[in-house]
Amino acid sequence: MSAKIKKYAGERIKTADLRAGKVPVVRWRPKVRYAWSTGIAMSRFLKELKNGKIIARKCHKCNRIVVPPRMYCEMCFRPTDEWVYVKDSGIINTYSISYLAADATRTDKPTVVAVIEIDGASKGIGIVHIIGEAKPKDVTFGMKVKAVWKPPKERTGAITDIKYFKPVEV
Amino acid sequence: MFAKRRVAVVGAGLTLFRRNLKETGRELAFEASKMALDSAGLTRKDIDCVTLGTAPDAFDGIHMKGENLSDGAGAYRKPYTRVFVGGGTGVFAPNAGWWHVASGLFDTCLVVAEEKMSSCFPHPQYAFTTIFDPIMSRPIGMNLVWIFAIEMHRYMHVHGIKKEQIALVSVKNKGNAMDHPCAQLPAKITVEDVLNSETLVHPVQRLDISPTSDGAAALVLASEKVAKEITDDPVWIDGVGWGIDSTYWTNRDLYYPKYVECAARMAYKMAGIKNPPKEIDVAEPYDPFDYKELHHMEGLLLCKKGEAPKLTEEGVTQRDGDLPINPSGGLLGVGNPIAAAGLMKVCEIFWQLRGEAGKRQVPGDPRTGVAQAWGDLMQYGSVIVLRS
Amino acid sequence: MSLEKIGDPRDLTHWMGHMETDYSYTYGIAGEKFFKELKENAKIMGTRCKNCNLIYVPPRLFCERCFEKLDTWETVSKRGSVHTYTIANIDIDGSKLKKPIIWAMIKIDNVHGGFVHKLGEVDSKDVEIGMHVEAVFKSRKEREGSMLDIKYFRPAKQKLEKALR
Q1: Is the minimum CB–CB distance between A62 and chain B shorter than 8 Å?
Q2: Does residue A20 sit at the B interface (CB-CB below 8 Å)?
Q3: Cα C111 to the chain's mean position, in Å?
Q4: How many CB atoms neighbour CB A58 within 10 A?
Q5: Where are the domains of chain A?
Q6: Cis (ω within 30 of 0) for the bond into B124?
Q7: How many other CB atoms are there within 10 angstroms of residue B258's CB atom?
Q8: How confident is the model at residue C12 (pLDDT cuts 50, 70, 90)?
Q9: Superfamily of domain C28-164
Q10: pLDDT tier, A105 (very low <50, low <70, confident <90, very high otherwise)
């Protein structure tokens, strides 16, 4: 290829020129809104969050207790069998420290985001959430953390009813 | 699992990869398709069917992008399919093209991949927020780099890997891209440059990440009979593989890409490969982040778990090393128009095995190469094995 | 389990969301030239494929049939005929329009292709398939390089006069 082809197609335009309106473009903003039904398992999960509890599902075949809960076991491919309350604490499986907002702009304050293996669920079963009340440099793998809940009145039945997880003083 | 018919790659095409290209998506698709056809000495008339790969519609901002791109992909009044497995699409598209021909249904297939991420602003990353579960993940402000930083950190933690070791991948790939005529970010940089670059989401820094890009790539596939009529130099697709892991990504251990191993084992079995590091001469694992090249080398069974950083340090993965990895410059150097970037890797293996890679040619007359891509929510692997 | 009966959908929790994305589409190589001519000179341009003996309107960079690159540009007629049409009484969001809009697919004379656009200066009951129409442009000042630089198509004057004669 390299030897034979002299010129590759593609007319580059500078991002700055594009932003400055120097290149003709058509602009569009999709006006769509969504309302997702939270389904059987997650409706219960969210209701329990409102009560300050984390609920999981257990599969009697593989004996896994999984959270987020699901009405079927994706491994055994059969219905899961029972609701099980798990603890609102766990250990940090992995984490990162973000200086980046979703739109790729930079944030002033870092956010620590972690996968937390939940106590009472099967080994390796975790959820993703924010870590608070800790300096980023003090966060470690395997660190014990506990949920910090919003006051009952402020809870809406959302994953954000847990404000964040904070390190447990040992 | 044995194919009825052998399938060859007989032509490849590529456009420039850039942050913004003026061409529309379909114009880009045309340019890559046309180059692939010309290089095979074929015209659109000779093509029996078309397979298109392109990532989420949210980037180009055109719903039913497959329909929109079809004429540029040469699909006018032909059997046409769009395939989509997220970031894995670029290597999955030729896999789908392969079964169109291997099945005996068609003799030739044009495989096209396109992405125009610049349409989405202020930054295409924002469109990525919509890939996450709306109940568990979006409310806490999840963004794309978070999940990769989390995976990278776990990989580093389990094997005790240092950031310096990972940075070598970025240095190598951006350096390799200096020799790629389509490259968006070729550069001579040092490990220090990577370590001193802005921290975006620790441990991910700016120079650990591939850019967002516009671009297109294409391949022409042919049955054994047709391939032998039109070229003395066919490159055979001897193995294809693909697979997906659990959608509950917080329930998995992220230190190892099991999904890539599943896809690789499928492809290797078909290709009769028993000892991948010995039998594979050149590889193009998916490298949207530098750690992913290492992660995927391990998933592709090119080395033991946790061993990829050491091989990189020893220079084994350099273009003139024992196992050249990403001689093209990869996504880090050439650019990352999602599906087109994956297919660019397959183009590179094709050119390497034909001895047509010019300045990028790996020495020693490589005979067997593998390309791989990774997609969906950190869980999808697609693999293709080519032989000259 | 998953076949649990929910009688009232309000028993189900819903999660609201939207896609906050903006787009800015380049016109492409062929499109940029087409809209420049439309804006600056009120001209409709097409590209000719010599192999297939076709003029594409709107113009394309390549021929979808023979797959050759096209670089022969031609100014084409501003007139065409109504290939098919519909009369819209409701808007895109389902609300009732004060005045119905006639949407027509217009085949431009002597080329391959045309546009979907509004018909104006005509009563909906007088529209016919095959009717000859012409583009009515906005003034130079108002034109901004968009399909809306053509206000609408109206019954072609010359043809009408002929018919009356």
Answers
A1: no
A2: no
A3: 15
A4: 19
A5: 39-167
A6: no
A7: 15
A8: low
A9: Nucleic acid-binding proteins (2.40.50.140)
A10: confident
> Dihedrals φ, ψ of B31, to 5°?
-60, -45
| Substitution target from A18, A34, A105 for chain C, most C beta carbons within 10 A | A34
Residue C30 has pLDDT above 90, yes or no: yes
CB B194 within 8 A of CB B167: yes
The amino acid occupying position C149 is D
Could you tell me which residues are beta bridge partners of residue B237?
B7, B386
Instruction: Output the six-digit token pair for B114.
Output: 């396109």
Q: What is the DSSP letter of B254?
A: T
**Residue of C23, C70, C112 to mutate for B, most B C-beta atoms under 10 A:** C23
CATH for B79: 3.40.47.10
Pick the residue from chain C with its C-alpha nearest to A25: C26
Read off the tokens for B54. 């392109």
CA distance A91 to chain B (A): 13
ipTM of the complex: 0.88
Give yes or no for a contact between A110 and B149, defined as CB atoms under 8 angstroms apart: no
State the total domains in chain B. 1
At B311, give phi and psi (nearest 5°): -60, -40
pLDDT of residue B309 exceeding 60: yes
Question: Across-strand partners of B231?
Answer: none
Are A10 and B28 in contact (CB < 8 Å)? yes
Say if B167 falls within a structural domain: no
Residue where the block lists tokens 């000259």: B388
Neighbours of C, requiring at least 3 CB pairs below 8 Å, are A, B
For residues A14-31, give the mean pLDDT. 86
Is residue C1's pLDDT more than 50? no
A1 pLDDT above the threshold of 90:
no
Q: Where are the domains of chain C?
A: 28-164
**Euclidean distance between CA atoms A158 and A140, whole angstroms:** 27
Provide the residue count of chain B.
Answer: 388
Give whichever of A1-10, B113-122, B366-375 has the largest mean pLDDT: B366-375
CB-based contact, B275 to chain A, within 8 Å: no
Given a cut of 50, whether residue A90 has pLDDT beyond it is yes
**Residues B16-31: what's their mean pLDDT?**
96
DSSP, res B44: G
Per residue, what are the HEC states of C75-86?
A: EECCEEEEEEEE
Confidence at residue C165, expressed as pLDDT on a 0 to 100 scale = 46
Amino acid at B214: D
pLDDT over 50 at B36, yes or no: yes
Residue C35, both tokens: 């809209």
Residue B341 falls within a domain, yes or no? yes
Query: Does B120 sit within 8 Å of C21, measured CB to CB?
Result: yes
List C24's β-bridge partners, or say none.
A27
Q: How confident is the model at residue A39 (pLDDT cuts 50, 70, 90)?
A: confident
Please check whether residue B205 lies inside any domain of the structure. Answer: no
Q: Please answer whether residues B109 and B47 qualify as being in contact, where contact means their C-beta atoms are separated by less than 8 angstroms.
A: yes
Contact B23 C24 (CB under 8 A): no
Asked if the model's pLDDT at residue A20 lies above 80, the reply is: yes
Q: How confident is the prediction for chain C on average, in pLDDT?
A: 89
pLDDT at A28 over 90: no
Q: How close, in Å, is residue A28 to chain C by CA atoms?
A: 5
Interface test with B, best of C13, C22, C26, C63 (most B CBs within 10 A): C26
CA angle A70, A75, A81 (to 5 degrees): 45
Chain pair B-C, CB pairs under 8 angstroms: 71
